[in-house]
Design a protein that fits this description.
2 copies of one chain form a homodimer.
Chain A (H helix, E strand, L loop, with lengths): L3 H9 L3 H7 L1 E5 L1 H9 L4 E6 L2 H6 L5 E2 L2 H7 L8 E6 L11 E5 L5 H13 L4 E5 L8 H7 L7 E5 L1 H7 L4 E10 L10 E5 L8 H4 L4 E4 L13 H14 L1
Parallel strand pairs in A: 2-3, 5-6, 5-9, 6-7, 8-9, 8-10
Antiparallel strand pairs in A: 1-4, 2-4
Helix pairs in contact in A: 6-7, 6-10
């Protein structure tokens, strides 16, 4: 049984301002819940409609009715489990390795894919400009899976951050230097990726030391690669050396 | 003014069986309409609520009311233009270059991203297994932009296709050979990418000559990369040589 006030509280967490205020977020589905628990994310409350989950899983959860789950779920067809987790406390960014910085990436799916890519390529720090979409957006969480727990995500003023850094700043541009000719034996740097529609903003561009570009092999068009696929290719280039 | 029967006809095209039956598809938004017209895709009908578009654009379109556009649109908040195009006739696949083959990719966004990647990397042929999501799905079209017009997409039996081919067949697997060690100076081959949840099916796996894999640099997990980002990285590896 979920009380009316709890239902309201959990529904409110669908909005960023409530998530930020309470430092909580919601995920749905057994796979991601298990991943986050395994990665030592701290649960606030876990609700399930499944006796099997209640019996099998080591984490503490509360059995509720399907009607109640429907009330707290953001999904049209709810899974059998919904969990509220505490947001990870952002740690200070160590500049001893490569890191990724996002300049106003707005699509939650793109952000989720980028977090997952950071995790795959051993990038443990992700800096997001203040206007970048919330990493606890449900669509972002859906795309990140458990990676969320392994990447330190910090929101802040990107210009200030780039002005203060002492490591090289690379940025993805349509007219940058061919990335295949770049020397990535260097062990630290920042890769800046821009907004979906406008790319890197002029203010941020002014703080970039190396502009890089992925060569186009097909018919030359004005279209660019999607920011998440471009990040995939560039992180692969950086790590392959 | 759009007649009732036209409204019904266009709404029906939201379903794959009607699109296939009539060999038509629907796109919304000026950018993609312009891209497809420019790429010589043949319009069947174009509707707009904008006098400016009617006056400025060279293609023939019909001025309709916002109420009518809302009736034929699949979007909650319609753009000011909706177009019905003829589906491109699939051409025979020439095996004189690299091509991509998909084994039951189900997410329309992933398919759209992969089509866009093919276009970027000069892959002009894409073979889709019969169970792969329809390339004229609205979410696919949203992700492809104009690339759709530059990639020849063929649906069919993937096993038969791979059995008949004379060029090498590469496939993406978690336990494949490190792709960085692969010699991609060869000028033709097939890259097979698997289903989001299950990867490449055993039947298709049996027809693959080289299993390749993208190295993981972060904490080793059982999670894989998303199929679209993995395709991005592998096509980049193939083209960089």
């Amino acid at each position: 049984m979920v009380s009316k006030s709890q239902i309201k509280f959990i529904k409110n967490l669908q909005q960023k301002k409530y998530r930020t205020e309470h430092k909580l977020f919601v995920v749905e589905g057994i796979k991601v819940v298990k991943e986050l628990v395994k990665a030592n994310m701290k649960p606030y409350a876990i609700y399930t409609t499944s006796n099997a989950i209640l019996a099998e899983e080591s984490f503490k959860c509360e059995l509720i009715s399907e009607a109640d789950l429907k009330k707290i779920s953001a999904l049209k067809t709810p899974n059998n489990i919904l969990a509220v987790f505490h947001q990870a406390k952002a740690a200070e960014i160590a500049e001893d390795n490569w890191l990724v910085a996002l300049d106003d990436v707005r699509d939650p799916g793109n952000l989720g894919t980028i977090i997952r890519l950071c995790d795959w390529f051993g990038i443990t720090n992700l800096f997001c400009s203040s206007q970048t979409v919330d990493c606890y957006n449900p669509k972002t969480l859906q795309a990140t899976m458990g990676s969320m727990a392994r990447v330190n995500i910090v929101y802040g003023n990107l210009e200030d951050f780039l002005q203060a850094t002492k490591i090289p700043v690379y940025g993805a541009f349509m007219d940058g230097k061919n990335v295949y000719k770049e020397d990535f034996t260097i062990k630290k740097g920042i890769l800046v990726m821009g907004n979906e529609a406008n790319g890197v903003s002029p203010e941020v561009e002014a703080l970039i030391t190396k502009k890089i570009s992925i060569p186009q092999f097909g018919t030359k068009t004005t279209e660019s690669l999607n920011v998440a696929t471009a990040t995939a290719i560039l992180l692969n280039e950086i790590r392959r050396g």
